[in-house]
Specification:
It contains six helices and no strands. It is mainly alpha-helical and 191 residues long. The chain has one domain: Four Helix Bundle (Hemerythrin (Met), subunit A), CATH 1.20.120. Helix 2 packs antiparallel against helix 3 and helix 3 crosses helix 5.
């Protein structure tokens, strides 16, 4: 395959995923009447997958610094598979949930009262800064991951290195902040 075709394929996948996530977050599609029993576990699963990917990315960096290309490649394939599982789980959770969880919403009614906002304090601002940067970078890193993954598998070393200079820190930031967002929002889940 030529690079132009790969770029179009990556762009199509990236746009498709972005549109699906946008549709699910806007609650355009009807959700099931009864939430499946496994739904409350999905955010924890997502945090576990993100945390595992964070560790794998660091291990991958270690292996490439040691010039152990085989281990580096295997670890990256595993990180890619786990990130793909995360994406499926994330999409499934946002499809199944009827109401979005809001930071600081202690009673779970979907509305932040003045007392709930006051109780959340400045951590609410910190949460939203982390969440917004996480969301923006998560949307942008998908095409970088796909292109980096492809160039690595094709042994296009120079292209892979150039891409990974951007992909690695962004992907690592997204996986780490995914765990942080979970830890900050989990007290406000009401299933």
């Amino acid at each position: 395959m030529n690079d132009k075709l790969i770029f179009r394929f990556v762009a199509a996948i990236s746009v498709f995923v972005f549109v699906v996530v946008l549709i699910l977050n806007r609650k355009i599609l009807p959700t099931p009447d009864v939430m499946p029993a496994f739904t409350p576990f999905l955010p924890k699963l997502n945090a576990i997958l993100n945390g595992t990917c964070s560790v794998l990315l660091l291990v991958s960096l270690y292996f490439i610094k040691q010039r152990n290309i085989t281990a580096h490649k295997r670890i990256n394939i595993l990180a890619f598979c786990l990130s793909s599982m995360f994406l499926v789980s994330y999409i499934l959770f946002h499809y199944l949930m009827k109401v979005e969880t809001r930071y600081g919403d202690l009673n779970g009614d979907g509305v932040l009262s003045a007392s709930e906002i006051a109780a959340a304090g400045s951590l609410r601002f910190v949460y939203y800064v982390i969440l917004i940067t996480h969301i923006i970078l998560a949307a942008g890193v998908l095409p970088l991951i796909l292109l980096s993954f492809y160039s690595g598998l094709q042994l296009q070393v120079e292209k892979h290195r150039k891409l990974v200079r951007w992909t690695f820190p962004i992907w690592l930031y997204v996986t780490v902040t995914g765990v942080i967002v979970y830890l900050m929002i989990v007290p406000y889940y009401h299933f």
